[in-house]
Amino acid sequence: MQVVAIIVLSLACTGAVIASHVVPLDIEKYTGQWYGISVVSDMPIVVETLKHMKASEHFVTRCPNEKHCAISRSANMLKSGMCLHETTTFLVDGSTHKIYPKKVSDEQKKLFGSNMTIIYRKMVYNRYGFVESHIVKDNVHFKAMSIIARTPHVTEDIMEEFKEAVVQANLPIEGKVDLENKDFCNDTKVHYEKTNCGKDPFSIDKYVGYWITIAMAADNPVMVAELERFQSGHQIVHRVSSFENTIIVKGNILMGNGTCAKAVFTTKINETSGKATPVKHTFATHTITNFTDYHYGCIDLEYENYGFLTFYGRIHKIPFNAIYLIARKKPVPESAFEKLAAISKKFGISKEGIMKPPSNEFCYEEDDLEKEQ
User: Fold this and answer.
1) Of 126, 145, 178, which residue is a domain's last?
2) Phi-psi region for residue 139, left (φ > 0), alpha (ψ -120 to 50) or beta?
3) pLDDT band at residue 372 under the 50/70/90 scheme
4) Do 57 and 35 form a contact (C-beta atoms < 8 A)?
5) Among 304, 332, 338, 365, which is most exposed with the fewest C-beta within 10 angstroms?
6) CATH no. for residue 297?
7) Taking Cα atoms as reference points, which of 287, 168, 137 lies closest to residue 227?
8) Cβ–Cβ < 8 Å for 184, 192
9) Which of 114, 76, 110, 93 has its CA nearest to residue 22?
10) In terms of residue numbers, what domain contains 33?
11) Candidate ranges 93-102, 113-122, 215-224; pick with highest mean pLDDT
12) Most confident of the ranges 41-55, 152-166, 180-194
């Protein structure tokens, strides 16, 4: 059953792009957490094997010191409760956008043969993507298409769009397998590499990707009132350059009145301390009131799970301190909230200053979405 761990990974991360129509893969934007949502294939062994899978997630990072290289670590839960893991390293040709696996395991060769290709049909890097895979085995050509997403589930409109893409690819929709994505692997074989920012080096490459705001704490009543308006929040982190310690954080916040507030930070990160020096930041002034002197830094971060960030600045010219609990996905263990309370106490923040955004819905502003090329 080890081959089960390979399937979603192979459909999302390996092979060589040779088709005429292809979305170029931007490794900087592709890094971070992804989930396998749904797969359609005309290869019987793929369909049959996927029926045994309950959930699939993988975490993508750049290769150290290699610009066009990425590493994907997957954790796949079977319906039997067993967890399977796989690590794949792949190279991206910057001029042709072809993607080559550095190493193909024996399981992959046995299942797929040695001739695999992949086409990124659509990539909205902070939400979802459509991936088309081609397999030639024993001189027979097979095809598959899958959805990968930043969240464990996607909306109905994305599923309808996926069905249209499946039809256009001449694949049988009756071969579609949807993953439950309710229970995930939680052993330490994949999770969790972390940093105590006061003691350990901070890794920008592992910080990039998708994060959800789980809870917030603040010491200023004005800031507390502002944060109480937040219904949900999420952000996508990009590295500006492979050779600079500069990131861009694009956040969307669902407000109580139903509007979507946008925030964009450009900041330099000290990878020794995890402290950030702001270069530029903008807020949607019609929904978020006046922030100035805004800085943030890292306290403690499990790169593939959850962590804590500090924020300080001024709101209406009044100083504030805030602590954010962020995570790759919901839910987080109760121990995370206990730790947030302990950290907040050190900053003089009482339990009354801790807030949890109540909504599980997120807002997306079209001009903030990372479109396919």
Assistant:
1) 178
2) left
3) very low
4) yes
5) 338
6) 2.40.128.20
7) 287
8) no
9) 93
10) 3-178
11) 215-224
12) 152-166
